[in-house]
Amino acid sequence: VQLVESGGGMVQVGGSLRLSCVASGIPMRINGMGWYRQAPGKMRELVARITSDGIADYAESAKGRFTISGDTAKNSVYLQMDSLKPEDTAVYYCGADWANEGAWGQGTMVTVSS
């Protein structure tokens, strides 16, 4: 199983980034895929998650600014991040879950500079 993220980088306050994640090697239908982030000294937290049925869930901090979308056929998930703030700076991880298992990507750094 492999999850590969892309799209991180450095952006100024108010800017936008789009993260992408592709999962491969998963042996059965994915229940959901999502984006999580971990800032220095903090625990990993959910940013947004979307189920295979297209139901999306967002952290309060992401609502109104971030949009998650998925392509079930390609086992892919995307995160459009707009109006970025310095507090959005973190390593962003893609996660997928199926049956009672799950996997993480290696993470991609997002830095928002003021």
Keywords:
single chain; about 110 residues; mainly beta; 4-stranded antiparallel beta sheet; 11 strands; about 0% helix
Helix fraction bin? under 10%
Radius of gyration: 13 Å
Beta content: over 45%
Give the termini separation: 37 Å
By DSSP, the count of extended strands is 11
Note the quaternary state here: single chain
Task: Note the total helix count.
Answer: 0
Unreliable parts:
none
Shape: globular
Strands, helices and their partners?
Blueprint: E1 2-6, E2 9-12, E3 17-24, E4 32-38, E5 45-51, E6 56-58, E7 66-71, E8 76-81, E9 90-98, E10 101-104, E11 108-113
Parallel strand pairs: 2-11
Antiparallel strand pairs: 1-3, 3-8, 4-5, 4-9, 5-6, 7-8, 9-10, 9-11
Explain the overall architecture.
0% of the residues lie in helices and 57% in strands. The protein is mainly β and 114 residues long. The strands form 2 sheets. Strands 2, 4, 5, 6, 9, 10 and 11 form a 7-stranded mixed sheet that branches. A 4-stranded antiparallel sheet has the order 1-3-8-7, with no helix packed on it. Strand 5 (45-51) and strand 6 form a beta hairpin. The mean pLDDT is 96.
